[in-house]
Design a protein that fits this description.
mainly beta; Anthopleurin-A; 3 strands; about 10% helix; potassium channel regulator activity; antimicrobial
Length: about 50
């Protein structure tokens, strides 16, 4: 199964997040979703929205 370019991390993106290196701290009020479907030693962080 090959995903389309840019859609490699569907689970993370569905939650509105992006993959970051594991060392990055997700600063509140961002959410840290953990690894999700990001690559090894990365994690999914959702940056706070402007709403």
């Amino acid at each position: 199964f090959l995903s389309e370019p840019g859609n490699a991390y569907k689970q993370c993106h569905k939650k509105g997040g992006h993959c970051f290196p594991k060392e990055k701290i997700c600063i509140p009020p961002s959410s840290d979703f953990g690894k999700m479907d990001c690559r090894w030693r990365w994690k999914c962080c959702k940056k706070r929205s402007g709403k």
